[in-house]
Amino acid sequence: MDKTNVHEVRRLLHYRELIPRLEEALGKFSRRDSAEVLQPVRSSVPLHKHRGFMLSMPTYMENSGVLSTKLVCFYNREEGSSLPAVQASVLLMDPEYGNVKAVMDGEVITCMRTAAVSAISTKLLMRPEAEVLAILGTGKQALSHYTVFTEMFSFKEVRVWSRSGQGLQRFCQSVSGPVTPCVSVEEAVRGADAIATVTRSTEPVLFGRWVKPGAHVAAVGACRPDWRELDDALMREAVVYVDSREGAMSESGDVILSGAEMFAELGDVVNGTKPAHREKTTVFKSLGMGVQDAVSAQLVYDKWTAQASKQ
Ligand SMILES: NC(=O)c1ccc[n+]([C@@H]2O[C@H](COP(=O)([O-])OP(=O)(O)OC[C@H]3O[C@@H](n4cnc5c(N)ncnc54)[C@H](O)[C@@H]3O)[C@@H](O)[C@H]2O)c1
Ligand SMILES: O=C(O)[C@@H]1CCCCN1
């Protein structure tokens, strides 16, 4: 298999197949069994001139025979820039021979697996009677979060906020279901039961004083140790879950700078070794993990080879 392009990955990847695999992978990761998942903290190279970073995300799942690495560049672009904020490729390798089996587009994988993991955190940590979802940001992640959240849950209202009026308009035109555009973050999140923060902000946009007690926040942006999306009050009041403790300690400004305690990894909740505090305000601080890309790429590869062998 050579280069699998964006359209091919989009055609082959579906949330209904991806979500159970990701949930299983989160559980495996949190067991810290090196035969299940070996995933060192990713390395990061700053691209100062272009206000970006390159991340290298190797992962080995010995028991499943999956060896992969994602290479991803992300940028803190000016608003309105036509250049992409995130570009990625995923390499799948044969662990015995060391050859590359597939190189595939990583942008769709990044969008879908990140939104799917936020949906898993929301499934596990949101109150069952939830009615209102708020999405902060209107970029690629906002779209994938809208798609999977409206597929998985039955919210009565989905609100969205963007600091860019144009972005808000584009988002509302491109989604297939109902959405309420909001002019301020406060208007979007007041009374919301679930909130997804998917911005490129480097300073807090979501403040604890606006958040309904018992709400669940899936915090996806702010992936640098000095970047924030959530304020100290929210971080300290909420029960904080992370994807990886090591990752959060090295990369999450919201965790490091607030001094908030990390209660558990999402995988601990999947494994039943830590409780899901649905009754409390919860934050899931997502940074993204190589194992999420590994299982997503393997799923694409399996479906691609199964189809190719029938032709
Ligand atoms: N946790 C993960 O696994 C993961 C994966 C991919 C991307 N991300 C991060 O998620 C964020 C969104 O990614 P994307 O691909 O949707 O980017 P994008 O560029 O497509 O969208 C970014 C959105 O943030 C808004 N924005 C930019 N600067 C802002 C500011 N200062 N305040 C408020 N809003 C601002 C933009 O208007 C836009 O709506 C980025 O920070 C990215 O690094 C995280
Ligand atoms: O895990 C990822 O793929 C992302 C890419 C962009 C920055 C944060 N992490």
From TrEMBL:
Pfam families: OCD_Mu_crystall. It catalyses: L-proline + NAD(+) = 1-pyrroline-2-carboxylate + NADH + H(+); Delta(2)-thiazoline-2-carboxylate + NADPH + 2 H(+) = L-thiazolidine-2-carboxylate + NADP(+); (S)-cystathionine ketimine + NADH + 2 H(+) = (3R,5S)-2,3,5,6,7-pentahydro-1,4-thiazepine-3,5-dicarboxylate + NAD(+); (S)-cystathionine ketimine + NADPH + 2 H(+) = (3R,5S)-2,3,5,6,7-pentahydro-1,4-thiazepine-3,5-dicarboxylate + NADP(+). One of its GO terms (cellular component) is cytoplasm. GO terms for biological process: thyroid hormone metabolic process. GO terms for molecular function: pyrroline-2-carboxylate reductase activity; thiomorpholine-carboxylate dehydrogenase activity; thyroid hormone binding. Its EC number is 1.5.1.1, 1.5.1.25. Signal peptide: none annotated. Homodimer. Binds the thyroid hormone triiodothyronine (T3); T3 binding inhibits enzymatic activity. Belongs to the ornithine cyclodeaminase/mu-crystallin family. This is Ketimine reductase mu-crystallin.
